[in-house]
Specification:
519 residues; alpha/beta; Growth Hormone, Chain: A; Rossmann fold; 3 domains; seven-stranded mixed sheet; 54% helix
Length: 519
Amino acid sequence: MNPQKKSMNAPALLSFFCGFVSLSLEILWVRLYGFAMLSTPMAFGFVLMAYLFGIAIGARQGGKVCHDASSHLWLWKKSVAALALSALLTLLIPVIFIWGQNQWWRNPLFDFVLIASVSSVLAYVFPIAHHLGAGAGTGNQGQRFAMVYTSNVMGAALGPLVTGYLLLNSFTLQQVFFGMAFLQLCAVAFFYGSQKLGADKNAVVMGSVSLAAVVLFISVSVDPHAVIQKINSNNQVASHVIENRHGIITIFAADGNKYAKGDDAVYGGNVYDGRTNLSLKKNTNGLHRLLLLAALQPQPKKVLMVGLSIGSWLAVVNGFPGVEHIDVIEINPGYIEAAQAYPVQARAMRDARVNIIIDDARRWLRLNPEKTYDLIVMNTTWHWRANTGFLLSREFLQVIQKHMAPGAVMAFNATGSPDAFYTATHVFEHAYRYENFIYAADFDFRPGKDGDAARKIYSDLKIEAENVFPNPDLIERYLNKRFFSIEQEARIAGRPLEIITDNNGLTEFKYGFPLSRMY
């Protein structure tokens, strides 16, 4: 083999590897920081800002090293040392981040420095790879220059794809961090040995391989969800954790007794999603808001549910009179796995009338324009979470409206956002608030709540042969709750209400979760 040809390819391989690992670590930090920051939209921007700052600092320092370089051998040693340091930081920085969660001194600047340090070390290597591959006196500079840059771009493109789409769907966040450290230690051994960087080559290579083996052993020995357990917002140990490429689901057993109380709490992306409770005696998850739909639309043959969560709402809707078919659109299949631990919810999913679709709701609805429903329920999460605006926007409500049959009613959880209510009034002829739920249709459905027919429906409602309302007093309690109009909502808000669109991020940024409450 031509030695010169071998040296030509090594810098391109180094460039590819740095691009792959750097972008993979960015994906991991977006998930880790986003989980710690309660899935708020600022998390992605914060990580990106810190990461780019670290890249700029690292690349500048790498350029200075190239300017002062005495030989290519010296630059290779610098590169390999940087890879070893990056492997160490890949393991160490998440630990520091988690340990600092509840410390009085933790602040955004601290997080910024931690994340920037991760990207700066690998960015330091790229100018060196460029210098080694396309520096003066090497010949064919144009070709070598293109190879280094193309390799880096390919690595940077494959990193998010492989890590975000494949690795995070098969391994936990913690395990993938270990995996990135393992790869970097293997790279240290490979480049140190292939470039013959010292007389102690065999010792360094064997040491790096041994460390990589230790990292791999630890990754399969410790709790794979330890990182998530340390930073979950519930402040107790989750009884069950599900991680996949769509996100992280944590379940917390009631009173620490796994599945015993039937009132476990479900968190998605580190924020409250709902509970497994199916009893109005507890009503810890506000089932009466969903049950009201049985009175407003007494014979819903076809039902659409956007969002499954743990399946508690599906179990309730299954008991509505007249239901013949239910389409449930859920983007995260992890909830189906989680629900299997709860018999009633699991049986509800296996009901012959239920069709569970794993897809993005807007995409599926647009691909199935012929589908219409008598009842549509959106199990909406907190309005300030990242991307929730796409479910509350005028554009999405217009998509929902096209799938409503004559006389249909739809409902969604506004989670306290008056702008979500205001937006609904600009899409539907009638929209009203009952507690924090918005109900909308092309007709005035409010009289359905107040007649004897509603009381009859409520008294007959069952979940698996058990009456939903244990006594008439409870029926009167919930039917006597009143609807609020948008005029009343505007007076309560005390400010001009605004329409949520796909482009303005209103609930997530302008009226989102304040950063100060996260530190």
